[in-house]
Amino acid sequence: MSVELIKKVIPFDERDLELNRQGKVSSTQLIHLQNEISNISRFAWFGLFVSVILAFVAAIIFNNLEYKKPLIRNLNDLPVWFMLPVVFTLIIFVTSIIVLFWSVLKSKTYDGRLKVKVTEGKTERSTPDIDEYAYQIKVGEMIFYVEEKIYDAFTNDYYRVYYLDSSDILSVEEIRQGDLQ
Fold this sequence. Notes:
Blueprint: H1 2-9, H2 14-21, H3 27-63, H4 80-111, E1 117-126, E2 135-139, E3 142-146, H5 148-153, E4 158-163, E5 169-174
Antiparallel strand pairs: 1-2, 1-4, 2-3, 4-5
């Protein structure tokens, strides 16, 4: 029953599982991974667009401030309310560039031959502390950072998990302690 819960939160079927056992990624899994990257890069493009708009707004506001001296001499005279949007714009801009760069690199790894890895063993689960951002599931020696719904689906003790180098979980099967390799 536990694998049925996992299948609801990690999209895979028996065909995907069989291909993962052979060390291959199915076409549906590949499409799913590429769609995740596309969604992330869409947010990054939006962030980049927002930061450019904010930069234009800041430039218009700054242009109307009637400062006669060069900017370098007047940094102490600039009001705090002006500096916060500038800093916020820079943070959005830099973060968007980093995410776009990451998504290009990640999508390139999905273009080549993907190597499916496997780990198996007793499952240990841990919830995020204050300084952590994701739930953790440890299967064998591998730690997966997952969303809460995936964390909740791992209810039994022993699993075999098929995943990529990037720790993306592809498929899961329940095993008994005696089936450990």
